[in-house]
C-alpha cells in the first residue's frame, strides 16, 4: 500500500477520426500508437466511457496480451486509466501475457464486466509491425456492433481522459497489489495471475486428460509437433501438452513468446507455417499443429504434412463430437459456421439432425447464439474453431479435440479425414487473399460487382470453362438477422451460388493496418470421392471468379498474397 494517496488527473485531449474498432478491435501500426499524441489514451478512455459508470464503479476487469512489441507500455497506461475511471480490480496475466481464449475464460470465471486484449492476432509484430486493442464484454466474447459503434462515437468527440500517472504495477510478481487513490474510499487492486492455470483447469473439465496422456506418452504414443510460432501459446503448450500430458519437450517448437514473433508472421497457414509443414513431410510425426500470435487460431496437419482445411476440421469435429467428454454431458445444441466457410458442416448437421446457423464472419455472432443456448460448436474458414466453453475461438481446444478423436478412433489424421469424405462427400475449398490493395480500387471493384450480381439478368447466366458449365442459381449481398435479438447485419459479402452447390464469395477485410484485403472464397462439392488436388479441381471456378470480378485488371494485382 502506498503511503499517500495517488493523484488522479483529468487531461485535455482532441479526437482522432480513425478509431473505429472492428470485431477484431482497433489495429494500427505500432508507430501510430507511439507517435500520435494520446492516441492510445483516447481509445482506452472511449472504452471505459462506453461502460455505464454504475457498472464500472468498483468492478473487475481482465487485461492480457500476446506479448508483442508495445504490450507492456500499453498495459501501464491501461492500469493507470482503469484506476482513474473507477474500476476496482484488474486481473492481469503474468508479465502482461495471456492468450485470447484464456482472457475469455478468466472474464467468465471471475464474473468481470469485460476485458482488454492487446493483440493484432496473426498480424506481424515488432517496432515496425502491428498493434491492436480489443474489448471483450462480460460474456467473455468480442464486443457487439452496438458496443463498438458506441466506442467509436465517443472517440470522435472525446475532449478529456482520466489517468493516475503515478501508479506503477509490477507485472513480474504473482499476487495482489493495492493502491490508495485520492477521493477513493476503497483501494484499487491489481492481481497478477498465472496466465495458464485457470484456462488449463477449464480444459481438464472438458477433455479426458488420462486418455490423452496415454495417447501422447503411453506404451505406443503418437508423435506430435506443435509450433507456437513465438506467440502467446508457448507457455500453454509447454505446461499442458508437455508437462501435464507427457509430450516430449522437443515436440514443442518456437514456444518462447517474442515481441516480434521471431521476425515471422504468426499466422498458422501453409505459407507462414511452412517450417512446420516441411518438418512433417518425412513422416517422423503423426500429428502437427500451429497456432497464431494470440492463440485463438490453429492449423491441423497429419503425417507427411497432410493438410486439414479449417472447414473440414470443423466438420470432422462435429461428426466426432462425442469423443469429447464435455459434450457427452451437455449434449449438442447446434452448430454454426461463418458464411464464407465451406458447407461441409451443413452435411454433418443434416445427417445428425442438429440445427445449423450461418453467420457473418466474426466470432461475436457465435457468442450471441451460444449465450442463448442455441449453439455448442462453431468455426470459421480462417483457422478458427471453438466450443461453448468460452466465447472466443480456441486454438489449443481444437488441438485437444483432434487428439481426443484420434484417441477414440485409433486412426490417423489422414484416415479420419478420408473416412469423412467417404461418408459425406468432399468440399473443395480455397481462399485467395489479395493483401494491401489500394482501398479506392478495391471499393470500386466491389461496388461494380454488387451492381452486376444483383441485376435480375445475372441469375440463370451460364459460365463455361473447359468441359464444365456453371449456372447461377442465386446471387446476393449476404445479410444476417440474429435469431436471438433480431439485429440485422448487412453487406457481409457478395455471394454467387451455382446450381451444383458451388459458391464464389467476395469480401473486403479491414483487419490489416495497411490498405485493403480482397478475399475470394471458392467452395465446390463432389459426392464421389476424388483424391485430386484442390487447385486442380477448382481451377474452372477460380477462372470464373476472376473473370466476373476483373480483379487483376481493377487492382493491378497479378496474383494473391496468400492461398489457403
Give an overview in words.
It is a single chain. With about 575 residues, this protein is an alpha/beta fold. It has three domains: about 10-195, Alpha-D-Glucose-1,6-Bisphosphate, subunit A, domain 3 (Alpha-D-Glucose-1,6-Bisphosphate, Chain A, domain 3, 3-Layer(aba) Sandwich), CATH 3.40.120; about 200-425, Alpha-D-Glucose-1,6-Bisphosphate, subunit A, domain 3 (Alpha-D-Glucose-1,6-Bisphosphate, Chain A, domain 3); about 425-564, Alpha-D-phosphohexomutase, C-terminal domain (TATA-Binding Protein). It is about 35% helix and about 25% strand. It has 20 helices and 27 strands. The strands form six sheets. A seven-stranded mixed beta sheet has the order 2-6-5-3-4-9-8, with helices on both faces. The radius of gyration is 24 Å and the shape is globular.
